Amino acid sequence: MTRTIQPGQPAPDLNVDLVGAGSFKLADASPERFTMVVFYRGLHCPVCRSYNKALVRQLDALAERGVEVVAVSMDDEDRATTTVQDWKLGEDLRVGYGLTEESARQWGLYISSAISDSEPATFAEPGLFLVRPDGTLYYAAVNSMPWGRPDLEELTKALDFIIDKDYPARGMAT
Q1: Pairing mode of beta strands 23-25, 15-18
Q2: 147 vs 174, residue with greater confidence
Q3: Helix (H/G/I), strand (E/B), else coil: 37
Q4: What's residue 4's pLDDT?
Q5: Which residues contact 73 (CB under 8 A, 6 or more apart)?
Q6: 135, 27 Cβ separation under 8 angstroms
Q7: Per-residue b/e over 63-78, b at no fewer than 16 CB within 10 Å?
Q8: Each residue's pLDDT tens digit, 14-39
Q9: Phi and psi dihedrals of 74, rounded to 5?
Q10: Coil, strand, or helix at residue 17?
Q11: C-alpha dist (Å) from residue 144 to 40, 124, 132, 139, 152
């Protein structure tokens, strides 16, 4: 499989509205070290609920390491708002909605079709990306199922090593 998004290269554009007001535009992000973009399947996904709640628990530790976080799905505003309320995600996690299928594909996300009435017709499978302040991709983890995502506590601890050693992006060999 040929990846269209490569570490060390510019990350794809990302511009989504946020639950509660405002918008998130990756090009305007100015983190100290990384922007963490967490793509999740949407309101219908109980595994995403657990993962995003774990993400909320890591927000302070990530912020201490200079990492800003946004969680994004293809859900519409109503579903995304319900997600924040029903999952009790609080106000600290920025939750974006309205990701287009085209944008999801640019990020290399897998796209699924509904297999039950609770699912949207199409939605993006999970992915987690770290993007440097200069807009280049540092780290990518893409899943074809809701399971097997990066452990957030382990990733947070790995950031200490990455920062301390100024560890370079990997996976760039052609």
Answers
A1: antiparallel
A2: 147
A3: strand
A4: 75
A5: 39, 40, 41, 42, 43, 48, 79, 80, 83, 95, 96, 97, 99, 123, 124
A6: yes
A7: eebebbbbbbbbbeee
A8: 999 999 999 999 999 999 999 999 99
A9: -85, 0
A10: strand
A11: 11, 9, 25, 17, 18
The answer to whether the CB of 128 falls within 8 A of the CB of 38 is yes
Sign of CA dihedral 138, 55, 159, 147: negative
Q: What global pTM score does this model have?
A: 0.96
Neighbours of 27 (CB within 10 A): 10
Cβ pair 54, 72 in contact under 8 A = no
Backbone phi, psi, residue 10, to 5°: -60, 135
Amino acid at site 110: Y
Residue with tokens 């990518």: 140
Structure tokens at 41: 């399947």
Amino acid letter for position 94: R
* DSSP output for 95-156: EEE---HHHHHHTT--EEE-SSTTS-SEEEPPEEEEE-TTSBEEEEEE-SSSS-PPPHHHHH
What tokens appear for 96 in the block? 């974006």
